C-alpha cells in the first residue's frame, strides 16, 4: 500500500507566511492601525477615477486646523476612494469601522480575512508538524 505524499514543509511555511503577512499584517493590521479625524479639503485620484487600481490622495483638515495627507489605496486596508471635498472622516485606531459625515460604516470583510488568516496559520502549524515528524524519522533511521 502506497503512503500518501507529504507536502514539503518549506512550501507550507512560505505559503503560511505569505498569507499571514499579506492578508493579516498588510491588510488587517493597516486597517486597525489607521487613525483619521478631519474634513476632506482636497481630493485627487491617481491615475484617474475608474482605472482598475487607482488611489486617492486626500488632504484632511483636523480639529486643530492642521492639514495632513492620507492616501486611500485599492485594498481593503484603505478607506474609500473618491470621496468629495467636505466629507468628514473619523477612523479610530484598533477599529474596523469608520464614520463618514457622522454615519458609522463597517465595510471591512472581517469574516473573509478571519478565514484566510486561519488558513495561513494552519499552514504554518502544519509545516511545523511535518518538519518535526521528518526530523524524528531521520533520527530514528540514523540510530538503527
> Approximately how much helix is present in the residues?
40-55%
Q: Tell me the β content.
A: 15-25%
Structural class: alpha+beta
How many structural domains are formed by the residues? 2
- Largest β sheet strand count, sense and barrel closure: 6 strands, antiparallel
Query: How many strand elements?
Result: 6
If strands are numbered along the chain, what order do they take across the biggest sheet?
A: 3-2-1-4-5-6
Overall average pLDDT: 90
Give the low-confidence spans.
none
Shape: elongated
The Cα radius of gyration reads: 22 Å
Order of helices and strands: HEEEEEEH
Distance between the termini: 24 Å
Number of alpha- plus pi-helical segments: 2
Give an account of the 3D structure.
- With 144 residues, this protein is of the alpha+beta class.
- The chain folds into two domains: 34-107, no CATH class; 109-144.
- The chain has two helices and six strands; from the N terminus they run αββββββα.
- It has helices spanning 9-33, 110-143, and strands at 36-46, 55-61, 67-72, 88-91, 98-100, 103-105.
- The radius of gyration is 22 Å and the shape is elongated.
- The chain starts with 8 loop residues before the first helix and ends with a helix.
- The mean pLDDT is 90.
Concise description?
The chain has 144 residues and is α+β, with helices and mostly antiparallel strands.
